[in-house]
Amino acid sequence: MKLAKISKRNIAIISLLVLAVAAVLFTFYATSRTDNAATVYDNAPVPKAQIHALSLIANNETFANQVMFGNVSGFPININVQKPLVFDGKLGILYFGADYCPYCAITRWSLILALMRFGNFTELHYMTSNATDVYPNTATFTFFNSSYTSNYINFTSIEQQTVTHKALQTPTQEELLLFEKFDLNNSLIPQYARGGIPFVDFGNISVLVGAAISPNIIHNDNWTEVISGLSKPNSKYSQAIIGAANIFTAEICASNNNTPSQVCSQTYVKTIQKNLGIKVS
């Protein structure tokens, strides 16, 4: 028996319906940003429906190509290392951050979307940034106790401190050396910015030090509001978060010889690589 083909229009409708259902389910978890209410969800597991909703956004190629660069103002720095970063036989993507950090908070949104194009998160946890820092209680996720699998890359995350600045994860000697070399002691970065977080090493091809976009974009918004905004390609959320995710995707593709082709052959990837002068390894 032949199966009927589903049109792109119907796929888009189905995707929007799934997002709508996920948003309804999620209102139980985060309905308000007032009086620090969202902080009670710190470290609570993200429902599977919400992870699936993020994955649908991440893999919406039409949206990604529409957004392209978006309104991103910060970009990874090419470090031109000949030897690629490899963890356990796969291209290594290394992240340093902390739960308290509002700039890590906004970066995780984009990094999660980018990583979902190469693999799957089966576990994520909610987090809000520190209540007394700039952009307090920014809604985000934590990579601590997350679970990610990919056939193409090995994502390694270090959340160094909790939301209250207590020690959380300790990097290995290899991970610490990479942070020191490409962040703390990197002459390509202004002196005042060295040692900052978030830090992302895209396979030793490029590094991001600091956030590519401002936490102010989602400050005072809950998770439902951000995800709802991401379903609209012209929204401030998409132009920032998906824009940064597109740039991260182009960097990951370049680090891995533009593999897999179903991701790395997309127009937005090729355009970003060309315009930013990203060399494919």
Structure summarized in a few sentences:
This protein is α+β, with helices and mostly antiparallel strands and 281 residues long.
Q: How would you characterize the overall build of this protein?
A:
The chain has one domain (23-29, 37-212, 219-276). The protein is 37% helix and 17% strand. It contains nine helices and eight strands. Helix 1 runs antiparallel to helix 6 and helix 6 (223-230) packs across helix 7. Residues 1-35 have low confidence and may be disordered.
Order of helices and strands: HHHEEEHEEEHEEHHHH
Shape: globular
**Model regions low in confidence, pLDDT < 50 over at least 5 residues:** 1-35
Number of domains: 1
User: Any idea what the radius of gyration is?
Assistant: 18 Å
> Which band does the percent of strand residues land in?
15-25%
Helix content: 25-40%
How is the main sheet built?
6 strands, mixed
Structural class: alpha+beta
Distance between the termini: 45 Å
Write down how many β-strands occur, each being a DSSP E stretch of 2 or more residues. Answer: 8
| Mean of residue pLDDT values | 88
Counting H and I runs of at least 4 residues, what is the number of helices? 9
